[in-house]
Amino acid sequence: MFCVPSTQIGAMNITKGRLVLFSANSNSSCMELSKRISELLGVEMGKVQVYQEPNRETRVQIQESVRGKDVFIIQTVSKDVNTTIMELLIMVYACKTSCAKSIIGVIPYFPYSKQCKMRKRGSIVSKLLASMMCKAGLTHLITMDLHQKEIQGFFNIPVDNLRASPFLLQYIQEEIPDYRNAVIVAKSPASAKRAQSFAERLRLGIAVIHGEAQDAESDMVDGRHSPPTAKNVAAIHPSLEIPMLIPKEKPPITVVGDVGGRIAIIVDDIIDDVDSFLAAAETLKERGAYKIFVMATHGLLSSDAPRLIEESAIDEVVVTNTIPHEIQKLQCPKIKTVDISMILSEAIRRIHNGESMSYLFRNIGLDD
Length: 368
Description:
Blueprint: E1 19-23, H1 28-41, E2 48-52, E3 58-62, E4 70-74, H2 81-97, E5 102-106, H3 125-136, E6 140-144, E7 159-162, H4 165-175, E8 182-186, H5 192-202, E9 205-210, H6 216-222, E10 233-237, E11 240-243, E12 254-256, E13 263-271, H7 275-286, E14 291-299, H8 305-310, E15 316-320, H9 326-331, E16 335-338, H10 341-352
Parallel strand pairs: 1-4, 4-5, 5-6, 6-7, 8-9, 8-13, 13-14, 14-15, 15-16
Antiparallel strand pairs: 2-3, 9-12, 10-11
Function: Seems to play a negative regulatory role in 5-phosphoribose 1-diphosphate synthesis.
Family: Belongs to the ribose-phosphate pyrophosphokinase family.
Subunit structure: Binds to PRPS1 and PRPS2.
């Protein structure tokens, strides 16, 4: 459980006149999160107008002085992610040209974080976005549970990558009465480290789902069961031969660990396209799990995700309010929200007062 030491209550009042808190868009969910943070800090929201011109250009009008002040810009990622990014960049640049002392972005979910690796002839878009933010004038970034920790290296400014795991662990302990009979599940080997971290803190067992569902008919059609060709080298030049690798092939789906008669808690950082979660839930049901929970920091829940979750074997999906998802909750009562405004407000307070951030990372592992 995350809490603010009682000795620090009221510390913000000493220097709050030099702090300005802005919400970067008019999205109701972003305004709600900003309002919670401002109430915890005991400061009023800064006055700013962010709107779209008839030609879809974004316009920002800052309506108070920010000269020599610490400006914190809160921006959650809406469905229109590109407009969200432009709103943030334009507001940051407006504060820079208005002589703000420092400009700190509070972006709980960093957009384009899944595009952080080079794939074929693509590009590392999160690196591009980091460069744009720094060029616009951002001097510090507060975010939460980056998809890959290495994204911090894309910035040439300080980045505080906060963790939502204490809040999710608290939810498990308080809202799942028989959680002692649970097992933490990684829906793929890639998320095994996060699952292991959760399991160690809750003193529970762990299970890992590996492989993919096999369809014998389609396997025969596409030749996946055909023997590899005898020739295993490719001639590039008469004097140079490079060995050819046999294509990777996932084994039939298996569950490493016992989930029979247990509650299965699937943990991940992002839940967007829910197909893999649904497949994992079906597999766990077949193996005897009697309840299935999904815990994730960022609930993008795109497309038909709410309907698919409602019709699935999943009993509950728990996400934080890093991303607006009120509409999805109306479509699917199984979706629950955990509030993380407390840790964001404490991060803002500590940065503004020049205090150490280590308290926010106590007992936090690299794999959380």
